[in-house]
Amino acid sequence: MTNRTIVVGLAGTFVGMTALLVIGGIVLHPIALALAVPFGAVSYFLWYHATGRLHDQARRSAEQAGPTERQRARQRARAEANRERAYRAAGAADGGRGPGPGQRDARGTGSRAGPDGSETRDPRDRAPSTGGMTERQAYETLGLDRTADGETVRRTYRERAKRLHPDGADGDEEEFKRLNEAYEVLTD
């Protein structure tokens, strides 16, 4: 016996109970009508499931929502691994010296020699990006659904900002910048 057969049988049973309760409510007592309402609702949802429409609706909703958090995490990990691989390849190509003064490395970060000979970041790296982030990218950066309200956006931003702040233990300056940009896009 298939699942669909079982669900159709249950739907038929609930439809029968609903009909009996409606008749009982008309003939005997109105409270039976109140009991018929939940039985009717269950009958409808069982029928909706048995016809496959519930599955189709769930699939369409999932497609509209975009990738799941797990899929986005895999994509981020893959991108980070590719950047790291390119950085290592660039280091091997120049004998492990890294970028020279005023040059950018494979990660896209600039460096230059400071007054004491140590490398410092290029101040141009701190300039805001001119490309701009779309609203969709902002929601993806925060890991939120497009239907998230302002309070959820604010709460999620604060939680991630604490974790990603460059002064923190797990701080990541580039991710923190993207997080701030995403928050600005969603709060404007």
Automatic annotation (TrEMBL):
Start-end of Basic and acidic residues biased regions: 69-87, 118-127
Chain segments carrying region Disordered: 58-153
PROSITE patterns: DNAJ_2
Keywords tagged on the record: Membrane, Transmembrane, Transmembrane helix
Gene3D superfamilies: DnaJ domain
A Pfam family reported for this protein in Swiss-Prot or TrEMBL: DnaJ
Record domain J: where: 137-188
Amino-acid biosynthesis as UniProt keyword: no
Ranges that cross the membrane: 7-26, 32-50
InterPro entries to which the protein is assigned, alphabetical: DnaJ_C4, DnaJ_domain, J_dom_sf
SMART domains per UniProt: DnaJ (SM00271)
Domain of life: Archaea
Protein name (database record): DnaJ-domain-containing protein 1
